């Protein structure tokens, strides 16, 4: 009997079922490679129209993949042309299929990294799934450009920026959150080309280079607001001055689905809101090839 | 015989035909109220995929309404769900239906405010129509909140900002251009509500208040980069300190379809690109009610 590569057998559904049963509670960085992952926002129904508009106006950080009918946690309405909610994720429970959750009350984080939100979900909540940049990490790896954090079993570093989002109704005073992957200067155009078709999972980088740290208003590259501290591809601390000329290692910044969690805090929304714990995503039934789009 | 209000009889088509025959060459601020107006970008076909992506990633300043097949100037392919190109504008000639045009060579403005681009258009050009904020000026006026510039027959003031756009292929290093309409502080939420449904013509403001001038990186409110200098509703110069408390007159900034013209210059594109002269729009056959969208 041949040996079984359990990692190879992972599917979106298998990860969801493990999370649902409480057996999976870590970041999903390398889970079920090639399957699309997603961020979560769950809102009281009266806030849903403004949030939908907020996503439409800020589609790079907040690409809306699907939402639930009011109060429903096991069925999706698709926002991806050509795909149904059932195709995006069939066997589904948004209350427990993420490895970890965050709970916000009146815009403030009140519970962090809880296992599920089964008791908290009410008949008035609407769930939204938002694209995640993990979706193109497999494509980068396949092209010989694995993101440094994936080589060392770390969560991706995520930073608060000063770049404003377009307001929509109650969602105002928000700024981009970005994820970061370091690359050599000579590889950055290739990274842009590979990630460009992933339009609904943040797409190509929004900025790059050491100059971008100041341009985006990131306070300290060594201390991200979410995720793990950044490392170079060799596992050492990421610092400026590694390599020369085209070999210079530079930070590359992407839109990040943690952005709406910040937006919820900035808006100081009344009521109870749920989200996933950053890096702890839901894994869907669709694959990267289902969502990439050439123009 | 009753008198005829010629202004009332204006339609999108009548303005297009006047422009086409060389009889109309002014800004279209108050032309055919209620009919949707649009900005123009015409690119060599090899740049079209990147531009389409650029619009998708920056849909507030660059909402893509329609484009032409390669080399075609009299037929549109619609990007508005539920509307055909023929419905958007039937009798059409993108080479002459705008009152005035700009010509860029290799990313530099080489001709300004020309009457038409009939001789310049080639079999390789693709035309793009982008939403225009003039579309909601009629709705604001109807609600008793006429934009100040419309009261005094002036072009809307437009400003360069430091707020970065999301890059897409060759389109990088760009920032938002914004149009500005001053309103009393107490009316700003009403202005946001009225403009919010106009998602594909820039929608609600991106920022507001005197603090926003610095936040957006606008160098001087008195000297816009495009259009006319701003005026208060009473026709006097717009300055800080007009009114008190809720009556304070404040600048309100909207996404602006001149943004892609700046993007073309920033990208330093090789080849010949055409655009409309800022404020000198094409007027379409569709009306505002055809494009507003409630969430």
Protein traits:
homodimer; eight-stranded antiparallel beta sheet; disordered N terminus; PSTPO5379-like fold; alpha+beta; 295 residues
Structural description of this entry:
Chains A, B: Keywords: Lyase. Chains A, B: Belongs to the D-glutamate cyclase family. Chains A, B: InterPro entries: D-Glu_cyclase, Putative_hydro-lyase. Chains A, B: This is DUF1445 domain-containing protein. Chains A, B: It comes from Exophiala bonariae. The structure is a homodimer. With about 300 residues, chain A is an alpha+beta fold. Chain A folds into 2 domains: about 10-135 and about 265-290, PSTPO5379-like, CATH 3.40.1640; about 135-255, PSTPO5379-like fold (2-Layer Sandwich). Chain A is built from 10 helices and 12 strands. The first copy, chain A, has helices at about 5-10, 10-20, 50-55, 85-90, 135-140, 150, 190-195, 210-215, 260-265, 290; strands at about 35-45, 65, 75-80, 100-105, 110-115, 125-130, 160-165, 175-185, 205-210, 250-255, 270-275, 280-285. In chain A, strands 1, 2, 3, 4, 5, 6, 11 and 12 form an 8-stranded antiparallel beta sheet that branches. Chain A has a 4-stranded antiparallel beta sheet with strand order 7-8-10-9. The longest helix of chain A is centred in the N-terminal third of the chain and has 10 residues, at about 50-55. The first copy, chain A, is globular, with a radius of gyration of 18 Å. The first copy, chain A, starts with 5 loop residues before the first helix and ends with a helix. Mean pLDDT of chain A is about 95; it is low at about 1-5. The interface between A and B is medium-sized, with 27 and 27 residues.
